[in-house]
Amino acid sequence: MFSFFKKKAPPSETAPPAPASPAQAAPPAPVTAPAAPAPAPGALGWLRNTFGGKPVPEQESAPAAEPEAAPPAPLSAAPAPVPAPAAEALTPAALAATAPERKGWLDRLKAGLRKTGSSIATVFTGTQIDDALYEELEAALLMADTGVKATEHLLADLKRRVKEAKATEPSAVKGLLAEALTDLLAPLEKPLVIGEHTPTVIMVAGVNGAGKTTSIGKLTKHLANDGASVLLAAADTFRAAAREQLSVWADRNLVEIVSQEGGDPAAVSFDAVSAGRARGKDVVLVDTAGRLPTQLHLMEELKKIKRVVQKADATAPHEVLLVIDGNTGQNALAQVRAFDDALQLTGLVVTKLDGTAKGGVLAAIARERPVPVYFIGVGEKLEDLETFSAREFAQALLA
Q1: Residue whose C-alpha is closest to residue 136's, from 118, 120, 112
Q2: pLDDT tens digits, residue range 9-44?
Q3: What pLDDT, in 10s, does the model give residues 264-302?
Q4: Who has greater pLDDT, 197 or 261?
Q5: How many CA atoms lie within 13 Å of 45's alpha carbon, on the beta-carbon side?
Q6: Angle, nearest 10°, between helix axes 361-368 and 148-165?
Q7: What does the pLDDT read at residue 100?
Q8: What percentage of the chain carries pLDDT values higher than 70?
Q9: What distance in Å separates the CA atoms of residue 267 and residue 260, rounded to the nearest whole number?
């Protein structure tokens, strides 16, 4: 923020010196006044005090009236107060400017959702708004795995918006659908908060193949970039090479890891949380073994991990995340239901939204089990995992 203000309102350019009037030129004697007048309140004085820049000579920007000057009449010609040009730099539009890296992410998201978007966009190529258009749109939304309940909600909301806007062109309906989808997804938009607890214990679950361990590595990178110290717990002791895979991510991100070859997942989790508290870590990320919601005995093991973590820290886990594969469509919604019932999920990470025609599953989740979506991913690279924005997702889906 400081660099922004410095760029927008450099002190040396904000108050040009007022020309002195020859008729009122004063003899040199009064120049030996005790001190220059204090800066008038406003943006100029604030910037000078904040950034410690070279002060602009106040006697040039606002010459003091001198007792020996001519009669009172010339006083009416005194220079008007200098306005604060820095005020324009504080507009919300300037502060909310999109960073270049975010624009690059949006381009990748649009590319990842292109299959879903193209199947929906063809609906709006007609010439009129009629029942046939809504029927085609309903079929397209269902094919995109939006789900019956979310599709019915979107269509009813869309018809209301079309009537209120008095839209007559199908192309205008597409924009109204984006607004309706944004409002539906808005409850899922919530930031991941770190720092309320030390350490913040994040337990990560997911079925095999959803990209759980890879997402943990990417999340570790995000946290480390923000200055958080992270400790990883390799509690996925059932899957072959899972511990080694997480160790690779630990090495890449230069963070510590707690692991035991063939150890009990709950015991590894307990040791990691205890170590995190002792070492003053900001975050402990616990990688649990992949589970299928139909494997009840394995789901019970997840519950055990959560109970044992609470023995190491009565307030933990502070976040319970589920990683779901965006390609699985309605099966992803079934996973959210099952894991939420077992663990009381606090957030989701949706992966593999690249090259899929199933991107509408987030609408189904928002309508039937609105667990916040912290991150979405469109590829394997570190930068392909980003925070979720309802408006960005709706616009990318219908681009």
Answers
A1: 120
A2: 344 444 444 444 444 444 444 444 444 444 444 332
A3: 899 999 999 999 999 999 999 999 877 666 667 778 888
A4: 197
A5: 10
A6: 90
A7: 65
A8: 72
A9: 9
Angstrom distance (rounded) from CA 221 to CA 203: 17
> With the CA atoms of 37, 41, 43 and 45 taken in that order, what torsion angle do they form, in degrees rounded to the nearest 10?
30
Q: pLDDT band at 359, cuts 50/70/90?
A: confident
Q: Two tokens at 304?
A: 């055990």
Residue 112 has pLDDT above 60, yes or no: yes
For residues 229 and 234, what is the distance between their CA atoms, to the nearest angstrom?
17
Token pair recorded at residue 28: 């040199």
Residue 9 is which amino acid? A
Residue 134's CB is within 10 A of a number of other CB atoms, namely 16
| Residue 354 Cα to chain centre, angstroms | 19
- Size (the chain), residues: 399
Report residue 324 as tokens.
């779901």
| pLDDT of amino acid 296 | 73
Is the pLDDT reported for residue 168 higher than 60? yes
